[in-house]
Task: structure prediction
Amino acid sequence: MGILVILSSTVIFHIFLLLFKHRVYQVTTEDETVVPVNIATTNLPTTQSTFKNSGKVIIYAKYRTGSTFTSEFFFRHRDIAYIFEPLRTKQVSDVVKDGNPILRDMLDCKYSTNNTKRILKWWMDKVVFCQITGQSPGCIHGKPYSTHSAAQHCQAVTNKVVKVIRIEQVWELEEFFRENVKVVHVLRDPRGIAHSRRKIHRANEYWGQIVARTIEYCTGALADFLYIQRQYKKNPDLVRQLYHVVRYEDLAHHPQREMQRLYRFLDITPDKSLQEWVNLTEKHTESGKEKTGGYAYSTRRANPGYTSTAWREVIDWDTTTTVQRVCAEFMRVTGYNKMTTEKHLRNSSKELFLDIQTESLLETKILQGRNKYLGTTATNHQAQNQHQNG
Result:
């Protein structure tokens, strides 16, 4: 009993440590509903006569959400220049506070400015343009790739894509929305995220920290949706042009279908190189013969469909029920099914997720239920979130 009390206290401590930083919640007296109160109040233009595709895209994701696999749907296209996570500065663990100037220079193919000089040099030389072999013409992972070559490639193609996992909330990208930069928001089942984090950081993170960051992920995404929904009510046509949701599991299980949806949003015609890769990925997923391949941060998956949900075979039931409890509203809104028994969880015929599309998500009413994991008093609900650094 004493051990259980200590573990419970550790979980609660880390939840409060991480949640008492940035996002404030208020509680209604009637039903203890938790409502984010510091969502940005600024708005996109309510009218816009013409939309001009800028050819610029930001992949907005969080840590361990399948964003690297998602990126392959971009850089496999020969008319796209793809830039990997430029917002790392000084030390690998450091994140630039205001990354928008760096993102703007990256999207403008300007790689030698005062802004981009803030990026860690070896990260810029070996990772940003060549995190994966073939990401840029002639690049080999782990070997230097000159910014001059990267800039030449960027200027030669029509479309530029930057992936970031270190932007805290989607409204921080509002200035890009105003410039017709499209945003692709990557989501993943929070049960898979928690298991992935626990597997990678087993020696460095307490279980309480992982639970806290999972709560942070789910509540942060709900705040993003509330912001986008407000913009959608005022200017639905503009939001349809600028904002698109993809789930990692959909891309992995149905690459052909999701590629068509994604590229329809991007207003780009899939080319031969991309189509061949998608066909091969679909074949591997459908065959079910090969399972996993590659290391933890690799996009190389012999069977991406299996890999995206393989956690269901090994995650413990206590972790599953904890995540399902603290992320219940996020899972409902985004179409992830709750598993009611461990037997259902292990049964691969039980669907983990429903098919959803961006527009249905934008029209789904968000009701954050009782914040049971933080207690039932108003005092316990006065929580704030910390920006996830990895």
Remarks:
- Residues 207-234 form the longest helix (28 residues).
- Confidence is low (pLDDT under 50) at residues 1-7, 15-35, 292-299, 370-390.
